[in-house]
Design a protein that fits this description.
Strand 2, helix 4 and strand 3 form a beta-alpha-beta unit. It contains six helices and four strands, in the order ααβαβαβααβ. The chain is α/β, with parallel strands linked by helices. Strands 1-2-3-4 form a four-stranded parallel beta sheet, with helices on both faces.
Length: 169
């Protein structure tokens, strides 16, 4: 999207029927994005809003509430990506926060704490992707992996519904 959130937003809006079709039967939706560019920053809020609208539409038609627990798991730019990209990310986070139940933000810059002087830019972005994966896996494993504390979807929904913002890293 050429680092233009408006282009990402328009692309998501043009595909909204297809997006809705894919998420309509979901109980939980993870939206992952790298914030600060065009695609993730523009499209993520559109998708989250669509999940909220499914809830409203089902409630009106069926007189019951169907809610998609919507969790955003996003990264903020590295410092070397520039101030403009960081500002764009902050604006995107504000917009996304309006529509998700929980927003987990991973500041990429903090990944340099576990990197070293041999870490390439490519490796740094791979690290960021891995942390996104770990964030989502941490939530889903609570439901599907037996352990000391066994939780089901209802437990996760109770905790994460309207939780707000959380940070990893």
């Amino acid at each position: 999207a050429g680092a233009l959130p408006e282009v990402g937003r328009i692309a998501a809006e043009e595909s909204i029927d297809e997006i809705m079709e894919h998420i309509k039967d979901s109980h939980m939706l993870f939206i992952t994005a790298g914030m600060g560019g065009g695609t993730g920053t523009g499209a993520a809020p559109v998708i989250a809003k669509a999940a909220r609208e499914i809830k409203a539409a089902v409630k009106e038609k069926a007189l019951r509430e169907k809610k998609i627990l919507t969790v955003g798991v996003v990264t903020k730019p590295f410092g070397f990506e520039g101030i403009r990209r960081m500002r764009t990310a902050e604006l995107g986070l504000e917009e996304l926060q309006k529509y998700v139940d929980t927003l987990i933000v991973i500041p990429n810059q903090n990944l340099f704490r576990i990197a070293n002087e041999k870490t390439t830019f490519s490796d740094a972005f791979k690290l960021a992707d891995n942390v996104l994966h770990i964030g989502i896996r941490g939530v889903t494993d609570l439901m599907v992996m037996p352990g000391l504390i066994n939780l089901d979807f209802a437990d996760i929904e109770t905790v994460m519904s309207e939780m707000g913002k959380a940070m990893i890293g």
